[in-house]
Amino acid sequence: MLVYNTIFKVMKRHLTQIIVALVIVIFFSTVMSANYNSTSKPSFTESKVDIAVINNDSNSILSKGLVDFLGEKNNIVDIKQDEESIQDALYFRTITYVLTIPEDFSASYINGTAISLEKATIEDSFDSVDVDLSIDKYLNLYKLYMDTTNLSEEEIVINISKDLNSTVAANILNVEQQGSGGQNASYFFNYLNYAILSGFTVCIASILLVFNKFDLKRRNICSPINLTKINVQLFLGILTFGVVSLVFVFIIAFVLFPSTMSSGKGAIFALNTFIFMIVGMSFAFLLGQIFSKSDALDPIATVVSLGTSFIGGCFIPIEFLGDSVVKISKFLPTYWFVSSNTRIGLLNEITFSSLTPIFKNMFVLLAFAAALFAVALVVVKQKRQAEN
User: Fold this and answer.
1) Are residues 186 and 286 in the same domain?
2) Which of the listed ranges 125-134, 246-255, 260-269, 358-367 does the model predict with the highest average pLDDT?
3) CATH number reported for the structural domain that contains residue 58 in this entry
4) 75-76 β-sheet, strand order
5) Listed residues 165, 191, 222: the one ending a domain
6) pTM here?
7) Residues 236 and 354 reside in one and the same domain
8) Are 375 and 246 in a shared domain?
9) How far is CA 351 from CA 9, 265, 357, in A?
10) Residue 279 and residue 354 in one domain
């Protein structure tokens, strides 16, 4: 097993790069998981707007009730009531809305000949829309009580206050939490795209470069070990390295996500990652045949791993990418790897119908691996013809 042992001697040179890639994976997946947990319980808090109210109809019950209601929903700021002070307050964002209630507004509104309310707002402010809706809601409800009941103005204002301040208890159901928490684990496995295409690929390609050196290849041909045994030991060494690396990754995944990895999802994550590792091995085999010096491997692997991670949905979720970028990413194995991980993480139950799109993605990954391997064989054939 001389060739087999030599493989691991070469691997020691790139051990640091592999460890760094795994540390990056663990760090980013932990950060994303923490962010997911912190935002997994949605909530809503009503915001208040800084407004000013100039009530020239202060003696009416309707106007007082409207001002009190706006004060409960917003922050009423006292300002000088001259035109210049109002414009300055709006310009410097001291307030975003000024409501002016004209004199005799209440009496005209009750008689059906309402005088229009006056307002001044910051241009294109969304806050003004919220204040307008609150005013319309109050006045429409007042009109409804006035037309359908015989209540006095005081009673109408009291009932409106009760109606508009009533609350309804609601429970927000987070559907994703009904699963086994696989969404967190999917972040971890998505980032493995970077680890596999950077550290793992460079390590395997470096091994192939050593054995593809012209002088060493001639020595191997003349050695007592035949070429078939050399290739078998080379294959077994690379396979051993890949399996050991994946076992180490799965141990980390079990520590970080024990409930997910001990369920059926864990097995599917493992299968998907193993298939993507085959893609990485095929890519490493291609690099090992194209390049003759190891100096070119690191920059190529870095560009490929980072590029595919950004446009393939690893670092940036697919839903945040443009349509044209998504169309391009479908020509990369990373897209299908990440797509499978996302689907696995969102599984609530494991059935044939839910696993079908995941298995389709796995077949696409195997097709990528076969295509890369075929291109590498073409390169090997051309190099042999050139050597001869």
Assistant:
1) yes
2) 358-367
3) 3.40.1710.10
4) 75-76, 50-55, 97-101, 118-121
5) 165
6) 0.61
7) yes
8) yes
9) 45, 12, 11
10) yes
344 with 199, same domain: the answer is yes
Residues 301 and 236 in one domain: yes
Cβ proximity of 139 and 109 under 8 Å? yes
- Alpha carbon distance 36, 189 (integer Å): 15
Do 119 and 190 lie in one domain? The reply is no
| CA-to-CA dists, residue 338 to 202, 329, 362, 382, angstroms | 21, 11, 11, 34
Pairing state between β 50-55 and 75-76: parallel
Render the burial of 249-287: b for 16+ CB within 10 Å, e for the rest: bbeebeebbeebbebebbebbbebbebbbbbbbbbbbbb
174/207 Cα distance (integer angstroms):
48
Relative to beta strand 75-76, strand 97-101 is: unpaired
In a domain, 40, yes or no: no
Number of separate domains in the chain: 2
Q: How many CB atoms lie within 10 A of CB 300?
A: 15
Q: Is the pLDDT of residue 371 over 90?
A: yes
pLDDT score at 359: 93
Which residue is associated with the tokens 């493992």? 270
Per-residue pLDDT of 54-105, as tens digits, reads 998 888 898 999 999 999 889 999 888 888 888 888 888 889 999 999 988 8
Burial of residue 147 (CB within 10 Å: 0-12, 13-18, 19+) is exposed
Q: Which domain holds residue 78?
A: 50-165
Dist CA 25 CA 314 (whole Å): 11
Query: 175 falls in which pLDDT band (50, 70, 90)?
Result: very low
pLDDT number for residue 22: 64
User: Of 325, 316, 361, 319, which Cα lies nearest the Cα of 341?
Assistant: 361
Pairing of strands 50-55, 97-101: parallel
Q: At what angle do helices 182-190 and 333-345 cross, to 10 degrees?
A: 160
118-142 average pLDDT score? 87
Q: Which residue has the higher pLDDT, 230 or 270?
A: 270
Give me 19's structure tokens: 């460890």
